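wait is this the right file?? whatever heres the structure
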């Protein structure tokens, strides 16, 4: 399996690594979000920002094999309890991965973290209080093509109140996936 390390978000810089090679510069293939220099999350999952957080387009595209292990590293900790989720959206024919906004019911979730509970019945989440999101694998069943790869962390510390779950790291990397096989259909339209 190939290993891709995508350094992203939060407070200052982002840089992608593919098999140990760095991107040319920060935010090269990962779109810089408008909240990159703040700790601002999103509380309304119906706004367009949930998709790409009004990010700037990136100049490059990373070539990644389906089946690659991925994670994101931030200069700011993911310190609230809650799941981390990864999504892909295939760029439509005739659209450019560098400029497509990811709109529509085109995203499918391929990974969600689950909590663990210790003997004292304390719950913890993978990636909590870490700078690195949990590792996941892009399914080998994803067909060739250009995709937007999105990660989000849902902070649940205020979720006991209506509309107070907070969505973080809602950002996108531009990738070209290799290894064509039949896709597994798993469209998730929870937020759109």
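ok assuming it is, sequence goes like this
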């Amino acid at each position: 399996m190939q290993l891709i390390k995508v350094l992203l978000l939060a407070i200052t810089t982002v840089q992608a690594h593919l098999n140990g090679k760095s991107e040319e510069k920060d935010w090269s293939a990962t779109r810089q979000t408008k909240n990159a220099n703040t700790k601002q999350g999103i509380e309304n999952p119906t706004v367009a920002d949930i998709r790409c957080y009004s990010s700037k387009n990136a100049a490059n595209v990373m070539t990644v094999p389906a089946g690659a292990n991925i994670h994101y590293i931030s200069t700011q900790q993911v310190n609230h309890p809650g799941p981390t989720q990864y999504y892909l959206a295939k760029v439509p024919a005739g659209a450019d991965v560098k400029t497509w906004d990811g709109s529509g019911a085109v995203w499918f979730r391929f990974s969600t973290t689950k909590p663990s509970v210790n003997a004292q019945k304390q719950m913890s989440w993978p990636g909590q209080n870490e700078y690195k999101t949990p590792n996941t694998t892009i399914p080998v069943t994803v067909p060739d093509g250009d995709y937007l790869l999105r990660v989000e962390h849902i902070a649940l510390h205020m979720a006991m109140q209506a509309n107070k779950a907070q969505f973080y790291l809602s950002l996108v990397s531009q990738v070209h996936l290799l290894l064509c096989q039949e896709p597994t259909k798993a469209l998730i339209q929870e937020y759109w």
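The radius of gyration is 16 Å. so i think its the right one actually
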